[in-house]
Write a sequence for this structure.
């Protein structure tokens, strides 16, 4: 299972969600099954109501894949550490590896070293793709 923790600058304030077996970031929206929209990404921050958070930490062994309406990427992982900071998905020990970056204002993701754009990043606990919707 995965736990999601949004952190304000300096770790002053946090907001947690989960445990969940999967969630996704579709364009600018963090979606968790049975919760619909949980947070939006705007101007470099995750927004939940009036609160703003700089970073999203994912706790638990995590697989990541990317989706568009027509296709699905291979799975990447499992990673012991995953964070989303400044529009980048970072993985590995100390989140030192750059997996993907938000490419443009549409919120599409570009996997490091590839050219395809993906509107959705999916995070799972078990590496199974499952249905495209959370």
């Amino acid at each position: 299972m995965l736990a999601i923790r949004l952190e304000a600058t300096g770790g002053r304030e946090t907001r947690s969600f989960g445990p969940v077996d999967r969630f996704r970031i579709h364009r600018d929206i963090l979606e968790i099954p049975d919760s619909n929209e949980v947070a939006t990404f705007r101007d470099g921050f995750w927004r939940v109501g009036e609160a703003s958070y700089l970073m999203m930490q994912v706790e638990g062994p995590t697989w990541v894949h990317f989706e568009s309406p027509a296709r699905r990427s291979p799975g990447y992982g499992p990673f012991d550490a995953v964070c989303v900071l400044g529009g980048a998905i970072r993985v590995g020990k100390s989140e030192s590896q750059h997996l993907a970056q938000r490419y443009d204002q549409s919120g599409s993701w570009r996997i490091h070293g590839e050219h395809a754009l993906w509107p959705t990043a999916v995070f799972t606990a078990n590496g199974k793709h499952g249905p495209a919707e959370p």
User: Anything to note?
Assistant: The chain has a mean pLDDT of 88. The chain has no helices and 14 strands. Residues 1 and 21 are 5 Å apart (CA to CA).
